[in-house]
């Protein structure tokens, strides 16, 4: 300003210099935001030493301590696993500590803990630590079952569409093998988009546990999931209930809990909800309070320039919150959802580059 007052700079030069200063400050602000997001990503994706040591200690305990290998549940309680008079909850997780938090909060807030049955499903790697934890820290009078996916015959012997989709998805996911450095070096992206892309690199989204509980898009003739829901929501429902039916062929209703929630109330009233023949009950959400999470509208995940997408789906449709879903498996068995599911999974796999992935693999983190 002094230079302008002293006629050292004319208005044009002043405007040019001011623009340079503003651009420099904007760039510094952008770099600071991206650095914050990168540090946040590293902190959230890394495994703290204490947690790693916990899993290793539990695995050792499982191999050396008979008490850590005891049958869950005890033989006299096994009939409750298929008894529909109990409240059956499903938790799919490969994180022992997270599963413990969900289980403890569920039982502590239940008004009838003796009627709670929690089915914990994990992967082969985490099975020993998970069983050791719940064997050594029982939640009586609630009933806890711990199983690895590999314990199910249908998983070990047959083709699993979810796993086939995961394998074929690798060619799309490989675009981001450059890791976080490749993402943050993109100067054309807005900081919040970079933050969302960093989230997709989380190991959680590459875990089979994430894929067996939630997934892709709705089918046009799909009438039994929640009315007026989107393509993505319905295939979420398809995959989840398809797997639940194979996991729990004798149960009529289950509640799925994600491993990043804390139960704060008694959930037994969920069994009193009249779902009117629908398969899935969930809370619709378009955007949470987390500013780092991209909007959950379809326009952010599907390529609406593709005719098949544009003709059948609404870009403003919202996804649902999958932290807690209730599934009516009896209603599911009355439908032909499994055929519809297979059709759409194959459709998505065939056209995966053109239809689903508008921006990286964020769709998998949300769905």
Automatic annotation (TrEMBL):
Q: Name one Pfam family in it.
A: Glyco_transf_8
Which pathway does it take part in? Glycan metabolism; pectin biosynthesis
GO terms for biological process, alphabetical: cell wall organization
This protein's membrane topology, according to the annotation, is: Single-pass type II membrane protein
Q: Does the keyword Membrane apply?
A: no
Q: Name one GO molecular function term.
A: polygalacturonate 4-alpha-galacturonosyltransferase activity
Give the Enzyme Commission number: 2.4.1.-
InterPro entries listed in its UniProt record: GAUT, Glyco_trans_8, Nucleotide-diphossugar_trans
The source's superkingdom equals: Eukaryota
Q: Where in the cell is it found?
A: Golgi apparatus membrane
Q: What are the annotated GO cellular component locations?
A: Golgi membrane
UniProt KW keywords: Cell wall biogenesis/degradation, Glycosyltransferase, Golgi apparatus, Transferase
The main location is: Golgi
Q: Does the keyword Cell wall biogenesis/degradation apply?
A: yes
Family classification:
Belongs to the glycosyltransferase 8 family.
Q: What is the official name of this protein in its record?
A: Hexosyltransferase
* Biological source species: Salix viminalis
